[in-house]
Amino acid sequence: MKLLVTGGAGYIGSVVARMLLDNGHDVTVLDDLRTGHRAALAPEATHVDLPIHEAAQVLTPDAGFDGVLHFAALIAAGESMVRPELYWRNNTVGSLALIDAVRAAGVPRLVFSSTAAVYGNPLELPIPETAVKAPTNTYGATKLAVDMALTSEAIGHDLAAVSLRYFNVAGAYLRGDLAIGERHDPETHLIPIALEVAAGRRDKLQIFGDDYPTVDGTCVRDYIHVVDLARAHLLALTAAVPGRHRIYNLGNGNGFTNRQVVEVVREVTGEPVPVETAPRREGDPAELVASSALAREELGWVPEKPTLHDMVGDAWAFYRTHILEQR
Ligand code: UFG
Predict the structure, then answer these.
(1) By its UniProt entry, which Pfam families does this protein fall under (predicted)?
(2) Known catalytic residue: 11?
């Protein structure tokens, strides 16, 4: 297939772009490198340096794209509470412009990076796709708005749409000399920050809140390996059906508290990783654990690296070889 990957220089988008290329697809990456990294761009892909609201310049009717995988977005839940306007403009308005371009160009399918953050504080655990959607942060709200637009687009204009609701993505794609991992600037995610502490680049990790209604008072999240997540995108591309918007949660169904995550980082790295308790971060749901039964059933998705040790081990290998050694 001829595919456009928005955000293909980012953490997840760049892993998916590589896997698409490895599977014989023709890949164009649209990424303005505002948060993405030039080094993450696959050399075999065509790179278009444009923001998503200008995607129509590439998605022309003559270009013959078979599909779009839409990753480009702002992703920090905490930041979305203090700068909400950025999130609405980039994530929602930008995605609506992209959907307009997809329609105008007659592109038949679109796979969208949605999020567990659409559910807010869930009433049922593990969370099925049918659970109440009540996001507690602006990030989740901006993604939910796009999910709803895609449902309308599928019905109204026959788009084959798939939303993949990621839970917490971790790990790295390691293949020979190639390693693609997480490198946000500034980093906001728990595992890479804990690795920075393990590596001596920060003196301690702050744990945001220890009075949540969970086993040790810290938030619970469900972690998924980036390679397992990437494989779900390839499956979604072929499972997409015109006129339908399919939605799948992607996680492993196992919840880990923030303190348990830090413990795994200590075990994997052999470093002490000092922590201190800090106030809650605005907008954080207490517990997010996925039911991915639908993805398993309808996409045939089976995670190959479901353990947190695997994810932290791969993230640590990437961090040591590609971040520490290159400074
Ligand atoms: N946390 C800390 N200290 C830190 C960083 C994070 O205690 O320095 C805590 C957070 O408060 C939260 C947990 O670690 O309780 C996980 O936080 P992350 O920022 O790593 O991830 P989030 O759960 O906020 O969000 C991530 C992605 C979203 C995605 C969501 C789905 O960033 O894109 O997972 O669960 F939608």
Answers:
(1) Epimerase (PF01370)
(2) no
